[in-house]
Protein backbone atom coordinates (compact mmCIF):
# COMPACT_ATOMS: atom_id res chain seq x y z
CA UNK A 1 0.00 0.00 0.00
CA UNK A 2 1.30 3.40 -0.96
CA UNK A 3 1.91 5.50 2.16
CA UNK A 4 4.56 7.96 0.99
CA UNK A 5 3.99 11.52 2.14
CA UNK A 6 3.35 13.22 -1.15
CA UNK A 7 2.73 16.99 -1.23
CA UNK A 8 0.27 18.10 -3.84
CA UNK A 9 1.68 20.75 -6.15
CA UNK A 10 -1.76 22.24 -6.73
CA UNK A 11 -3.86 23.63 -3.88
CA UNK A 12 -7.02 21.77 -2.88
CA UNK A 13 -10.22 23.69 -2.00
CA UNK A 14 -10.73 23.45 1.76
CA UNK A 15 -14.43 22.82 1.22
CA UNK A 16 -13.56 19.75 -0.90
CA UNK A 17 -11.76 18.11 2.05
CA UNK A 18 -13.69 15.48 4.01
CA UNK A 19 -13.32 15.41 7.82
CA UNK A 20 -12.57 12.21 9.72
CA UNK A 21 -13.86 13.55 13.04
CA UNK A 22 -17.13 15.13 14.10
CA UNK A 23 -16.00 17.99 16.33
CA UNK A 24 -13.36 20.60 16.99
CA UNK A 25 -12.76 22.95 19.91
CA UNK A 26 -14.07 26.26 18.58
CA UNK A 27 -12.12 28.18 21.20
CA UNK A 28 -8.97 26.64 19.71
CA UNK A 29 -10.15 27.48 16.18
CA UNK A 30 -10.59 31.11 17.24
CA UNK A 31 -7.05 31.18 18.67
CA UNK A 32 -5.65 29.89 15.38
CA UNK A 33 -7.65 32.52 13.49
CA UNK A 34 -6.23 35.23 15.73
CA UNK A 35 -2.65 34.04 15.26
CA UNK A 36 -3.18 33.87 11.50
CA UNK A 37 -4.47 37.46 11.37
CA UNK A 38 -1.54 38.63 13.49
CA UNK A 39 1.07 36.84 11.36
CA UNK A 40 1.63 39.90 9.18
CA UNK A 41 1.27 40.68 5.52
CA UNK A 42 -0.65 38.58 3.02
CA UNK A 43 2.66 37.21 1.76
CA UNK A 44 3.63 36.06 5.28
CA UNK A 45 0.19 34.51 5.68
CA UNK A 46 0.67 32.60 2.42
CA UNK A 47 4.07 31.39 3.66
CA UNK A 48 2.43 30.26 6.89
CA UNK A 49 -0.17 28.27 4.95
CA UNK A 50 2.59 26.68 2.87
CA UNK A 51 4.39 25.48 6.02
CA UNK A 52 1.30 23.78 7.45
CA UNK A 53 0.13 21.31 4.87
CA UNK A 54 -2.87 19.15 5.74
CA UNK A 55 -2.26 15.36 5.97
CA UNK A 56 -4.89 13.46 4.02
CA UNK A 57 -5.83 9.97 2.83
CA UNK A 58 -6.88 9.55 -0.80
CA UNK A 59 -10.15 7.60 -0.78
CA UNK A 60 -11.82 5.27 -3.31
CA UNK A 61 -14.24 8.06 -4.24
CA UNK A 62 -11.28 10.22 -5.34
CA UNK A 63 -11.81 12.49 -2.31
CA UNK A 64 -9.23 13.65 0.21
CA UNK A 65 -9.93 12.73 3.85
CA UNK A 66 -8.27 14.93 6.50
CA UNK A 67 -6.54 12.91 9.22
CA UNK A 68 -5.05 15.79 11.24
CA UNK A 69 -5.14 19.60 11.54
CA UNK A 70 -8.93 19.91 11.35
CA UNK A 71 -8.68 22.98 13.60
CA UNK A 72 -6.27 24.71 11.22
CA UNK A 73 -8.40 23.86 8.19
CA UNK A 74 -11.50 25.25 9.91
CA UNK A 75 -9.65 28.38 11.05
CA UNK A 76 -8.39 29.11 7.53
CA UNK A 77 -11.84 28.48 6.08
CA UNK A 78 -13.35 30.93 8.57
CA UNK A 79 -10.68 33.43 7.51
CA UNK A 80 -12.01 33.05 3.94
CA UNK A 81 -8.98 31.13 2.67
CA UNK A 82 -10.29 28.96 -0.14
CA UNK A 83 -7.39 26.58 -0.94
CA UNK A 84 -4.65 24.76 0.96
CA UNK A 85 -1.85 22.33 0.17
CA UNK A 86 -2.19 18.73 1.33
CA UNK A 87 0.17 15.82 1.99
CA UNK A 88 -1.11 12.38 1.00
CA UNK A 89 -0.10 9.99 3.80
CA UNK A 90 -2.18 7.07 2.53
CA UNK A 91 -3.65 6.03 -0.81
CA UNK A 92 -6.75 3.84 -0.37
CA UNK A 93 -8.19 4.19 -3.85
CA UNK A 94 -7.95 0.43 -4.34
CA UNK A 95 -10.16 -0.27 -1.31
CA UNK A 96 -13.84 -1.11 -1.95
CA UNK A 97 -16.08 1.80 -0.96
CA UNK A 98 -18.05 -0.28 1.54
CA UNK A 99 -14.79 -1.36 3.23
CA UNK A 100 -13.17 2.08 3.30
CA UNK A 101 -14.25 3.23 6.76
CA UNK A 102 -13.36 -0.13 8.31
CA UNK A 103 -9.81 0.26 6.98
CA UNK A 104 -9.67 3.88 8.18
CA UNK A 105 -10.87 2.79 11.64
CA UNK A 106 -8.33 -0.03 11.79
CA UNK A 107 -5.53 2.41 10.96
CA UNK A 108 -6.89 4.91 13.53
CA UNK A 109 -7.42 7.52 10.84
CA UNK A 110 -10.99 8.29 11.89
CA UNK A 111 -12.60 9.35 15.18
CA UNK A 112 -16.42 9.12 14.85
CA UNK A 113 -17.36 10.49 18.28
CA UNK A 114 -19.81 13.35 18.80
CA UNK A 115 -19.73 16.35 21.16
CA UNK A 116 -21.00 14.13 23.99
CA UNK A 117 -18.17 11.66 23.50
CA UNK A 118 -20.53 9.04 22.06
CA UNK A 119 -19.54 6.91 19.08
CA UNK A 120 -21.64 7.45 15.97
CA UNK A 121 -22.03 5.71 12.63
CA UNK A 122 -19.50 6.66 9.95
CA UNK A 123 -22.35 8.04 7.82
CA UNK A 124 -22.88 10.70 10.51
CA UNK A 125 -19.43 12.21 9.90
CA UNK A 126 -19.66 15.74 8.51
CA UNK A 127 -19.30 16.11 4.74
CA UNK A 128 -17.23 19.29 4.96
CA UNK A 129 -14.92 21.19 7.31
CA UNK A 130 -17.66 23.81 7.73
CA UNK A 131 -19.98 21.22 9.32
CA UNK A 132 -17.66 20.37 12.24
CA UNK A 133 -19.43 20.90 15.59
CA UNK A 134 -18.02 22.50 18.72
CA UNK A 135 -16.86 20.35 21.64
CA UNK A 136 -15.81 22.62 24.54
CA UNK A 137 -13.94 19.72 26.13
CA UNK A 138 -11.67 19.51 23.09
CA UNK A 139 -10.80 23.18 23.63
CA UNK A 140 -10.14 22.49 27.31
CA UNK A 141 -7.89 19.54 26.43
CA UNK A 142 -5.88 21.66 24.00
CA UNK A 143 -5.38 24.39 26.59
CA UNK A 144 -4.54 21.79 29.22
CA UNK A 145 -1.70 20.46 27.06
CA UNK A 146 -0.33 23.97 26.46
CA UNK A 147 -0.47 24.59 30.23
CA UNK A 148 1.70 21.51 30.85
CA UNK A 149 -1.11 19.20 31.96
CA UNK A 150 0.10 16.49 29.62
CA UNK A 151 2.79 16.07 27.00
CA UNK A 152 2.31 16.13 23.25
CA UNK A 153 1.98 12.54 22.09
CA UNK A 154 1.95 10.72 18.76
CA UNK A 155 -1.11 8.67 19.73
CA UNK A 156 -3.85 9.43 17.16
CA UNK A 157 -6.57 11.75 18.49
CA UNK A 158 -4.81 11.91 21.88
CA UNK A 159 -6.39 15.26 22.76
CA UNK A 160 -9.84 13.78 22.16
CA UNK A 161 -9.00 11.00 24.63
CA UNK A 162 -8.13 13.70 27.15
CA UNK A 163 -11.33 15.58 26.27
CA UNK A 164 -13.36 12.46 27.03
CA UNK A 165 -11.57 12.08 30.38
CA UNK A 166 -12.26 15.74 31.24
CA UNK A 167 -15.93 15.26 30.35
CA UNK A 168 -16.18 13.23 33.57
CA UNK A 169 -14.12 15.66 35.66
CA UNK A 170 -15.23 19.21 34.80
CA UNK A 171 -18.83 20.44 34.40
CA UNK A 172 -19.58 21.80 30.94
CA UNK A 173 -21.26 24.89 32.44
CA UNK A 174 -18.00 25.77 34.20
CA UNK A 175 -16.09 25.66 30.89
CA UNK A 176 -18.65 27.98 29.32
CA UNK A 177 -18.84 30.42 32.27
CA UNK A 178 -15.31 30.42 33.71
CA UNK A 179 -12.75 28.80 31.43
CA UNK A 180 -9.85 29.73 33.73
CA UNK A 181 -11.39 27.94 36.70
CA UNK A 182 -12.25 24.97 34.47
CA UNK A 183 -8.60 24.79 33.41
CA UNK A 184 -7.51 24.75 37.07
CA UNK A 185 -9.79 21.78 37.75
CA UNK A 186 -8.53 20.09 34.58
CA UNK A 187 -4.91 20.51 35.72
CA UNK A 188 -5.71 18.90 39.08
CA UNK A 189 -7.45 15.99 37.37
CA UNK A 190 -4.61 15.56 34.86
CA UNK A 191 -2.05 15.09 37.64
CA UNK A 192 -4.11 12.41 39.37
CA UNK A 193 -3.56 8.69 38.98
CA UNK A 194 -7.03 8.45 37.45
CA UNK A 195 -5.43 9.86 34.27
CA UNK A 196 -2.40 7.57 34.26
CA UNK A 197 -3.70 5.54 31.28
CA UNK A 198 -3.92 8.58 28.98
CA UNK A 199 -1.27 9.41 26.31
CA UNK A 200 1.27 11.99 27.45
CA UNK A 201 0.36 11.68 31.16
CA UNK A 202 3.01 13.43 33.23
CA UNK A 203 1.53 13.39 36.70
CA UNK A 204 3.57 13.46 39.91
CA UNK A 205 6.21 10.77 40.37
CA UNK A 206 5.29 7.96 42.72
CA UNK A 207 6.63 8.18 46.25
CA UNK A 208 9.67 6.00 46.99
How many helices?
A: 8
Task: Give the termini distance in whole angstroms.
Answer: 48 Å
Low-confidence stretches: none
Tell me the quaternary state.
Answer: single chain
Proportion of helical residues? 25-40%
Instruction: Indicate the radius of gyration in whole angstroms.
Output: 18 Å
Label the CATH architecture of the largest domain. Answer: Alpha-Beta Complex
SSE blueprint and pairings:
Blueprint: E1 6-7, E2 12-13, E3 23-24, H1 26-37, H2 42-51, E4 54-58, E5 64-66, H3 70-78, E6 83-84, E7 86-91, H4 100-106, E8 133-134, H5 136-146, H6 158-166, H7 172-177, H8 179-190
Parallel strand pairs: 3-8, 4-7
Antiparallel strand pairs: 1-7, 2-6, 4-5
Helix pairs in contact: 1-3, 5-6, 5-8
Question: What is the compact description of this entry?
Answer:
This protein is α/β, with parallel strands linked by helices and about 210 residues long. The chain has eight helices and eight strands, in the order βββααββαββαβαααα. A four-stranded mixed beta sheet has the order 1-7-4-5, with no helix packed on it.
Describe it for me?
It is a single chain. With 208 residues, the protein is an alpha/beta fold. The chain has helices at 26-37, 42-51, 70-78, 100-106, 136-146, 158-166, 172-177, 179-190, and strands at 6-7, 12-13, 23-24, 54-58, 64-66, 83-84, 86-91, 133-134. The chain folds into two domains: 6-134, Conserved hypothetical protein from pyrococcus furiosus pfu- 392566-001, ParB domain; 136-195, Ubiquitin-associated (UBA) domain (Helicase, Ruva Protein, domain 3). It has a four-stranded mixed β-sheet, with no helix packed on it. It has a two-stranded antiparallel sheet with strand order 2-6. A two-stranded parallel ribbon has the order 3-8. Helix 1 crosses helix 3 and helix 5 packs across helix 6. The protein starts with 5 loop residues before the first strand and ends in an 18-residue tail after the last helix.
Amino acid sequence: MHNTREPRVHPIPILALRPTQMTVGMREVEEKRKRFRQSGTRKKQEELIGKHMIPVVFGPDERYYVVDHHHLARALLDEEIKDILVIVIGDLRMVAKDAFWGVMDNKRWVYPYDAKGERRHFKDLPKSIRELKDDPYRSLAGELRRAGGFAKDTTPFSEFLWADFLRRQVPRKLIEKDFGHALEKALQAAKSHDAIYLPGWCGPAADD
